[in-house]
Design a protein that fits this description.
The chain is α+β, with helices and mostly antiparallel strands and about 180 residues long. The chain has helices at about 15-30, 55-70, 85-95, 110-120, 155-165, and strands at about 1-10, 35-40, 50-55, 70-85, 100-105, 130-140, 145-150, 170-175. The protein has an eight-stranded antiparallel β-barrel with strand order 1-3-2-8-5-7-6-4.
């Protein structure tokens, strides 16, 4: 099975609505053979990131379109690769990260180049011990990646990204919904 990213933009950005949309996602997936792996919500509740495992993204995408009609717009599903964590551990933990960094990967970087860069630079996170890198989902088309962290603040995140020589396009504080 493959992993997919769906980004939801709620019509009403509130904690209550984010919680309801996540419940709707779970219910919609019960009708399919897909599994909800994790959800992460920005602190302003304007974006919900949903990771789904499925053999048939068209089926769950249709279920999502129906479930979210009039409630949220959606982008995806886009196939992603999990980097830096084990899927079984993610399924067991179901924990939220504190921060999300999005990087719009330049078009000339291939998946192999991205993975080699990640492997070479990851040991440098040790230079910023207050930041814990948790996992990355990189789109298979390498258009962007989502990197999840626990950190005391955005400045620490910026230092960590400098240590691994990787840009930041957007930083989001995440909230539990």
């Amino acid at each position: 099975m493959a992993l997919y990213l769906v980004e939801l933009t709620p019509q009403d950005a509130s904690k209550e609505n984010a919680t309801a949309l996540i419940e709707d996602a779970g219910q919609a997936l019960q009708q399919t053979e897909a599994e909800l792996i994790e959800t992460q919500v920005t602190s302003d509740f304007k974006t919900i990131y949903v990771i789904v495992e499925s053999n048939n993204p068209g089926v769950f995408a249709d279920a999502f379109k129906t479930a979210f009609e009039g409630k949220a717009s959606l982008a995806g599903p886009d196939e992603v690769r999990l980097v830096g964590a084990d899927l079984d551990d993610i399924k067991k933990l179901k924990s939220n990260a504190e921060y999300l960094i999005e990087w719009d990967i330049p078009a000339e970087i291939t998946m192999d180049q991205y993975l080699a860069r990640k492997k070479a630079n990851s040991p440098n996170y040790a230079k910023v011990p207050e930041v814990s890198f948790l996992r990355t989902y990189v789109r298979e088309d390498t258009a962007k990646c989502l990197c999840f962290y626990d950190a005391p603040d955005e400045d620490a995140l910026r230092r960590a990204r400098e240590a691994v020589n990787t840009p930041i396009d957007r930083i989001f504080k995440l909230n539990e919904a």
